[in-house]
Specification:
disordered N terminus; single chain
Length: about 270
């Protein structure tokens, strides 16, 4: 029997520019003052015409407050929301994330840095309310490799993440809820003058409260941006995802992973103060 899995605790991760926003916090903000504010505005859509029944257009905004304890440790609180133009139209809040991160935990060589982080979710989204999500926690370990010897400002990083959801119930109607999710984020970043480029590959696997594992998911994202000012940047990008499973269950969705109609295209504006 096939079970549907609700990934309610990662609703914010479904926003196209989420990976970008998280990397902005990690890579672009240097400690110049204890408190910092970051504001973002994103518009996203897929390749279908506006009148198509599969059209998906969204306008989202996010704000995060960051406190730098020192040059290696910081805390952030992030809130965001979006307006949907298609499907279930309207205005929606995303869940709030509280984050703590420490860099330079271990430096085995001058080019390698290990950092650790944790996140706690405050459920305010429509999905979290409907599934009675109390909270979620996520821990991650990230290794970053500077490739300056090969090409200046080129960086490769890999992050392993484990998320645990805490629901009031194990199911929502006849749908099983997600308890655990393990994911791996592989990123390549490059900065040249005021231009920046980023490629991300995310693989994830989840388990419900009965211990049943669900088909892994693969997501890719590519982005190019420009730093207009010390505080202001803009970027455009695309992202797409697919769940891979036994081909006997139907057409392999990996065939459409790089289809130009299925991806979500986005433009994002970011201001850091």
């Amino acid at each position: 029997m096939k079970h549907n899995l609700i990934c309610c605790a990662i609703a914010f991760a479904l926003v196209p520019a989420a990976l970008h926003a998280e990397q902005v916090q990690d890579n672009k903000i240097e400690q110049e003052q204890p408190w910092q504010l970051s504001l973002g505005l994103d518009y996203s859509r897929n390749g279908h015409n506006n009148s198509h029944h599969l059209a998906d257009r969204n306008l989202s905004a996010n704000a995060s407050i960051r406190y730098n304890l020192n040059s290696d440790t910081y805390f952030t609180a992030e809130v965001s929301g979006l307006h949907r133009y298609d499907g279930k139209q309207g205005d929606y809040w995303n869940d709030i994330w509280l984050t703590a991160k420490k860099k330079n935990v271990w430096n085995p060589t001058k080019n390698i840095d290990m950092s650790i982080g944790s996140r706690v979710l405050i459920p305010i989204s429509d999905t979290s309310q409907k599934t009675d999500l109390n909270t979620a926690i996520r821990g991650d370990i990230t290794f970053s490799l500077s490739l300056d010897d090969l090409l200046k400002n080129l960086q490769l990083s890999d992050s392993v993440r484990l998320q645990k959801n805490f629901h009031k119930y194990t199911t929502a109607g006849h749908q099983l809820l997600e308890e655990y999710r393990v994911s791996n984020v592989l990123s390549v970043d490059y900065y040249k003058n005021k231009w920046f480029f980023s490629i991300n590959f995310v693989t994830s696997t989840s388990w419900d409260y009965r211990g049943t594992s669900h088909s892994p998911k693969l997501t890719h994202a590519e982005e190019i941006g420009y730093q207009f000012h010390d505080n202001f940047s803009a970027a455009v990008g695309m992202t797409n995802s697919a769940t891979y499973y036994d081909p006997d269950r139907g057409p392999n969705p990996l065939n459409t992973l790089f289809d130009l109609k299925d991806p979500t295209y986005y433009i994002t504006l970011n201001y850091n103060y």
